[in-house]
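Case 476 in the screening queue. Each case pairs one protein sequence with one candidate compound; here the compound is (2R)-2,3-dihydroxypropanoic acid. For every case the pipeline is the same: read the inputs, emit a complex structure as tokens, and attach any notable structural observations.

Predict complex for case 476.
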Amino acid sequence: MTAEAGPTTGVTEAAAGVDVAAVDLDAADRATWRVAVETLDANWEYDHTVPSRTLYPHQWSWDSAFIAIGLAHLDPARAWRELDTLFAAQWPDGRVPHIVFNPRLRPGDYFPGPDMWASPLAAGPPSGATSGIVQPPVHALAAWRVHQIATGRSGAGAVDATHRLRALYPRLVAQQRYLARRRDVGGGGLASVVHPWESGLDNSPAWDAPMAAVDADPAVMRAYRRHDTRFVADSHRPTDLDYARYLALVAAYRDRGYADDDLAGRQPFLVECPLFNAVRAAAELALAGIAGVLGEDSGPHRDRAARITDAIVERLYDPVAGTFRPRDLRTGRLVPARTVLGLTPILLPGLPAEQVRTILAEATSERFGLTARMSRPLPSHDRTAADFEPLRYWRGPSWMNINWLIWQGLREHGETTLAAGLRESMLDLVRRSGCHEYFHPDTGAGLGSPAFGWTAALTLDVLAEHGGFAGCRPLP
Ligand code: DGY
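Case 476 output:
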């Protein structure tokens, strides 16, 4: 594994020493554990973790949620700090921005940077420079998990956990309220995303049909210097046409001050995504668990989780294909591509048996190749599709966070054998290639950033589960 250049914190030895000892691992897994700890330490930036020192030098929203889960295994105080720093940038309307810009960096250190986002133009501006869009709301899930891990330990972490959870709870509730009240553009109980970056799967083939309607000229990119292609081959990244459309969508939303009224009339990209909404329902279940710990009423959270689950089945399930697909609100139709997004509702304990069965059939088919043995983790797109691209970002490569979410879902539904196979497959990637951002879905070769935060963090979580250290309990 090649660590990217960056400041070190001096915590590596202590953290790795303590926690490797605390988890019952063999020599190979201890080595993997250490690589993951070193990656997280090297990416730590005084009050948050950067996804990558080179490619993503600020704080990203869903990255930090996954990263907090890994940090909890090392030092729960650092995990809470990660989440607190992100939520300190929450907007007054409840949205949690997808990028929190580090004021210590120059505006030109990332593209698109704070000038492009111009967050002070918003009607109720945030306190610092941020983007104006959101990402999948995995944060309640993360907070609940950090609490579980912290309370599974002895000492100050356990004592502190309920206090930290109490401080975060209203912010997590506000995040969910924003999505329910401001983003249910289709009126059927699902939140819409207004930009592919909000889905987290930027250039997934799922977005090809809705993005084709976004008017943009790739020549506009001549006026800018892309940040990602300074570090990674063009053939592994979104195209210039993708980027021109990304910028057009940023401008459309930003120029109305990031207002959510009349999104249907104005925003050129509006999609109901199965992953985004499955995570949103799982967040309500996590909030139910949190409410229980805090002595609050968990009933409304459980009711909302059930309603979102029903809406996902009603609006996004394709009974003919036997998978879930995003719905394009511009056309009213489900998108044609069959991607890993279709498997993600398995995360939900309340998913009906028929949909669980068809997701398992899809996951174990040659399209996605899940097996009970160690093989390759799930790719991000259907391997049999003509537009499957094994090197290009979300158009084929395997990603740790999506596999981790599906691993949680398999265990949730009692699919322990498949879950064990997927766990071994995830670990095998990191053992062979290190904590890369994404991986070739056939060879397992590392792609993108070589020292990526959530890959490291979720590797720790997966390793710790085996050692019986964390105690992965099901969603309440
Ligand atoms: C973003 O900012 O969300 C993009 O994923 C960067 O590639």
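Case 476 observations:
- Residues 59 and 100 are 5 Å apart (CA to CA).
- Residues 5-18, 467-473 have pLDDT under 50 and may be disordered.
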